[in-house]
Write a structure and sequence with these properties.
Shape: elongated
Low-confidence stretches: 1-5
Number of strands: 0
Distance between the termini: 29 Å
Radius of gyration: 22 Å
Largest sheet: none
Helix content: over 70%
């Protein structure tokens, strides 16, 4: 029978995986920054080009920038979790706090999505999004609400997954502490 060699059991493979994940975190952060800059530039272009420019379109731009910032903020505790994994110190209370931080970022993201949906559904649709997407205002309203519902479902699924993972982490920490007491 062959012994299975997991990537984290082999220090060289484990560190290569962590390096690859860190590269992805940096790429996600750079993509988020590019999206934020693009949203700000689009806001300026539409406000200059649109005769009916209103303050509402800046609310959408700021909301989008904040949503991306929540995602970027969640990358910080993820980076720290990768550091704990590299040091082989994942089964500590630090890891649970970092998972809680990621859950907090996801919760704030969900609140921002709900606010965007409510503003689009019950307030007048923004000419900014209509102009930017080249659609009629009614279509924009349904697109924002539909996209928001999909985003909320994804955020809820992510948060449920993170809650299960946090529970498993806590159980592993308790079992490790019990084993340490026995040994």
């Amino acid at each position: 029978m062959c012994a299975r060699n997991d990537s984290m059991d082999d220090p060289e493979r484990g560190s290569a995986v962590i390096v690859a994940l860190r590269v992805l975190v940096v790429l996600f952060a750079l993509c988020g920054l590019a999206l934020q800059v693009g949203a700000l530039v689009a806001g300026v272009v539409v406000s200059i080009d649109c005769i009916h420019a209103d303050v509402a379109h800046w609310l959408y731009v700021i909301g989008f920038v904040l949503m991306v910032a929540c995602f970027e903020a969640a990358l910080v505790p993820l980076w720290r979790l990768l550091t704990l994994a590299r040091r082989r110190d994942v089964f500590s209370g630090k890891a649970v706090r970092l998972v809680d931080d990621i859950l907090g970022c996801a919760g704030v993201e969900g609140v921002l999505v709900v606010l965007a949906m409510l503003s689009q559904a019950w307030l007048s649709p923004s000419l900014f999004l209509s102009k930017l997407l080249g659609l009629e205002t009614d279509l924009v309203r349904f697109a924002v609400v539909g996209g928001g519902l999909v985003a909320l479902l994804l955020i809820a699924a992510f948060m449920l997954l993170m809650l299960v993972m946090r529970s498993l982490l806590r159980q592993a920490i308790e079992q490790r502490d019990e084993l340490s007491a026995v040994i």
